[in-house]
Amino acid sequence: MTAPDRATVRRTSTRLADGRELIYFDDSEPYVSGGATRRLDDPRPLSDRFAPVTGEDGVPRPVTGPEMRYDVLTGEWVPMAAHRMNRTHLPPADANPLAPARPGAAYSDGEIPDTDYDVVVFENRFPSLMAVPGVEDVVDHVDGEELWPTRPAAGRCEVICFSPDSTASLAGVGRRRMRTVIEAWADRTAELSALPGIEQVFCFENRGREIGVTLHHPHGQIYAYPYLTPRTATMLRQARAHRERTGRNLLRDVLDAELHSGRRVVAESEHWAAYVPAAARWPVEVHLAPRRDVPDLPALTDAECDDLAEIYLRLLQGGDRFFVVPPGEEDSGGPIHLPYIAAWHQAPVREGRDDLRLHLQLFSVLRAPGKLKYLAGSESGMGAWISDTTPERIADRLREVVPAGAGPA
What we know:
The chain has helices spanning 175-193, 230-246, 250-261, 302-319, 377-382, 391-401; strands at residues 10-15, 21-26, 53-54, 60-61, 67-71, 76-80, 119-123, 140-141, 149-152, 156-161, 200-207, 219-225, 265-268, 272-275, 284-290, 340-345, 359-364, 366-368, 371-372.
């Protein structure tokens, strides 16, 4: 298969003052044609992030990155990133690090040097995963005990800003800008997948205080893991068992079964289908899958990306209409901006490319206006999920609120 055509987006990479990479993805003039270039220098007096760190004793020591430890009871790696305790948390509007630089200001402590941007991606200043130059990715043991393996959390964490407007949301950026976001996701997935030791790339968005966001600016994140995440490992195990029994792809069969039933299908387009899974766990949950078997975002064609931009915005807009303000309250009957997590499940970099399939999982912890789904004893203690609703009720409501589209060809 030939490489997919790509939208007209100009990609410009630079380095921030401490050495982190920043990439502008431009779709507007005069930048997309090269008639002008975004600001590339970072005036902040930041030291190189990998420079030796001087301790209280005055002795400089090599910088250390986050580590991860192996949980022998679950078979999972757990990154330890204690430095994130001091990361920026819900700053005031005039201290928003994701906002563009202030016009005319000689200096501002934001992450984006230019006074405007379309979409921008940069390495996280407080990463959970980070590869430190010169540090080998080898297994050691906590306290010298072989039962407790540990190794560097040598991955990469990036931030993607969807809009320069701190009051905007991804649901309202428009199809052209959404298409640029998709292009950035695909670009970063391909680039990060090629890094040494990376096993999986995860593009996601957290939105809303209820989800736990530390910055309200419309943005998402991209993680490149040096291991398979627990959910992906579980899906891969199930998919391999299904293939051994049937000879077929599990996620392909799931999509076909949902389309055949139709009971929980929420929206369809030429290249995509959205449905509430038959065993949905969350109070609001919908999956979006391509009709064609595709392992990851870079494998999408230009037509599939164009179609995705339209149907994805419809789902986000529908989510913001799912709940309304209860009667008797101010703005009664008005919509509630849904707190959500949007998670792109992609096939791992190496193993499972033929067994796992690209799909989006969009879900919310909000179970009713002002009420959250808490992961209490059964869910947190035993991993035994209990749903507060039914998938059919979720689907019925989503069909009421998701805007109509062109439908499948």
